[in-house]
Known about the structure:
Layout: E1 2-6, H1 16-23, E2 27-33, H2 35-38, H3 43-62, E3 68-71, H4 74-84, E4 89-93, H5 98-114, E5 117-121, H6 143-152, H7 195-207, H8 213-216, H9 229-234, H10 239-259, H11 265-301, H12 323-331, H13 337-349, H14 354-367, H15 372-382, H16 388-398, H17 414-421, H18 426-431, H19 440-444, H20 451-457, H21 468-483
Parallel strand pairs: 1-2, 1-4, 2-3, 4-5
The structure holds flavin-adenine dinucleotide (FAD).
Amino acid sequence: MQLHWHRRDLRVADNRGLTMAAESGTVVPVFVFDDEILAHAASPRVRFMLDALAELRAWYRDHGSDLLVAHGDPKEVLPELADEYDADRVVWNKDYSGLARHRDAAVRRALDEAGVGRDVVHDAIHHEPGSITTNDGEPYSVYTYFWKKWRKREKESPYDAPDADRLADVSGDELPSIDELGFDEPDADVQSAGTAAARKRLDAFCDDAIYRYDEDRDYPTRDATSRLSTDLKFGTIGIREVYRATEEAKAAVADESDSEPDGDEGDAESNDEATNDDVESVEEFQSQLAWREFYTHVLFFNPEVVSQNYKEYDHDIEWRNDADELQAWKEGKTGYPIVDAGMRQLREEAYMHNRMRMVVASFLTKDLLVDWREGYAHFCEHLADHDTANDNGGWQWAASTGTDAQPYFRIFNPMTQGERYDADAEYIKQYVPELADATADTIHEWHELSEMERERVAPEYPEPIVDHSERREQALSMYKRARGDD
Length: 486
Ligand code: FAD
């Protein structure tokens, strides 16, 4: 008998650790609510996790078993459960973040002391930290080189869910409510959780948007991204399953072009072009999956980046850190419409479109001159998909302190970003109702309007809290001082 300890792998299919456990005996599935981990959680993520756990438990119950649910410190709970169920081994999938590694080391020691075996299995990403390195065996700090190797490496196929006869006939307690875990229901409308919901998102994406991902992914109203980030964070779907679907999407394009009737040469050429575009688009999506793995490696080898700059400057960056400006940013009341729309999407949906994450992060660090750690903490509090590696990577990129970071002198202009990626101000109007009756032109010129015009067009919407051009100059000076150039 063995325990499978579910953590960030809230699924049964394509679960390497679970499959390995089931191959060698009967499995008792377990989930532990750990107070130390919960202390870092936020209500949107707790909501998503509880819903995913409810689906997981239902699956086990349908298959003659159950999910044992415990509350406490895993290093105490797991040896006790192993003893109670006469299990000689505990199996779990690796989590590469610093906190999890610290916890897992303590669990390993406790199991060793109790004489219980354990297997810690690589599962969450395709290629483990340390498996893709420079020719000198060093971890990559530049994504492009990482990606070149990552894309060529063979990928494993998904694993099947375990057979019911491999699951122990056990009976677990009911799941706690969100309230019992010490959290309020989130104000945000968190997306549906569980493997069925994740598969639905993956299927829908691979049927359509994956082929226009390359072109449309930066436009928040084009619905061109997969929305799988929270699923990947909690492991409600396996990475091999996602990757296989993308390969099938590629193959479908090739099949379609093979079956096209021969036309004249001009038609054939344009068909080839369309096929290439489709394949490139799928690969662009795969390259985002590789970013996730790149940042996982970065965090694994540099756990201190959670609170420290990856790239140190000669001197400390003298952040301005004005509390009122930070608050206005958090509330989506900066008077920069595209920034405010992003920040309000975050509160309403516990999610924000990637382009908007880049815009609001640039605005916080380079217009408000607020330390990226404040932004990271706010995202951590509100995002359902908050993932230490990706969130940290994104913030340090925007703040020009990260691995492949934006050079410090690349400063997004929030007006141009709005005009380019939300030309009709559709996204802005969706999240900033004060601007619902304004024209797109007026919205994109908000910073240039007179006080009277602003009052006439949208009296409830704030005027810009800072002047972008002035702040741009201040940001450049701030970074130059940190570099020792001034
Ligand atoms: P898609 O475009 O469909 O991408 C597919 C998957 O690839 C994503 O689900 C994600 O797992 C991965 N991915 C995509 N872009 C990136 C990226 N730049 N870095 C790493 N992985 C990526 N992503 C998170 O998963 N959690 C976070 O906490 C997070 N915080 C971010 C903070 C900032 C400041 C920035 C700039 C980006 C952050 N990202 C984060 C990356 C990215 O914004 C989200 O992964 C993406 O918006 C999620 O939507 P999607 O699933 O539709 O993405």
